[in-house]
Amino acid sequence: MAVILIQSAIYLGVIAMTRLARPSFSKLCYRRSDKSINLVHNSLKIVALWCILAAYVTPFFIIPHTVHPILGWILYLLGAFALCSIAINVFLLPMLPVLVPWLGIVGALMVMSFPWYPDGVVRALSVFVYAFCSAPFVWASMVRIVSSLQLSLEREAFLPARLVESSSNSWFNKLY
User: Fold this and answer.
1) Whether the Cβ atoms of residue 142 and residue 91 lie closer than 8 Å to each other
2) In whole angstroms, what is the distance from residue 125 CA to residue 133 CA?
3) Between 26 and 92, where is the model more confident?
4) Calpha distance 131→113 (Å, rounded)
5) Is the pLDDT of residue 10 over 80?
6) Within the chain, where are the H helices?
7) C-alpha 171: how far from its chain's center?
8) For the chain, which residues make up each domain, given as ranges?
9) Distance CA 83, CA 89 (A)
């Protein structure tokens, strides 16, 4: 129980700190596109998507196995929300598309916990139908996250102007 309380306190602290430490949106300004930094843009997109995936996977592995399932799921959802809030804050992502899988997990838990299923087969089919119906929403949220990352990269949220100027003045660009 002490581990659960410590993890809960850490997750609540992370959520509070990410809410207090909001990045400044006034620093975002448009710049012209440069083809030499496409690799950096694609790398940042992949890193952001991996961070979101890690935010949903990591809490699963650090929850004690001997905890009651209800406490475990609450701790998992709190941890996933805390780590997703870090990814939202770091990569300047919209909150709802990042939390759509979180809402889908909550919905799947509600479908699984419905008490009036006649047997396990009907329960499993219900979870499958729910997953089938929620998959387009998860896909749409992923598309929205990637487009938001592209917009942030075009606004120079991650690359300062000096880095862009130095990459455009590199020896490779002067040759061609």
Assistant:
1) no
2) 12
3) 92
4) 15
5) yes
6) 2-20, 38-62, 69-91, 95-113, 120-154, 161-168, 171-175
7) 37
8) 36-159
9) 10
User: Residue 36: helix, strand or coil by DSSP?
Assistant: helix
**H or E segment and range at residue 93:** none
N-term to C-term CA, the chain = 64
How far apart are the C-alpha atoms of 148 and 157, rounded to whole Å? 11
Q: Express as a percent the part of the chain with pLDDT over 90.
A: 53
Collapsing DSSP states into helix, strand and coil, what is residue 160? coil
Phi-psi region of 23 (alpha: psi -120 to 50; beta: other; left: phi over 0): beta
Contact between residue 41 and residue 154 where contact means Cβ atoms under 8 Å apart: no
Q: Which two tokens stand for residue 8?
A: 């809960």
Tokens 């916990």 -> residue? 113
pTM value is 0.77
Q: What is the pLDDT of residues 12-48, one digit of tens each?
A: 999 999 888 766 443 444 444 555 567 777 888 888 8
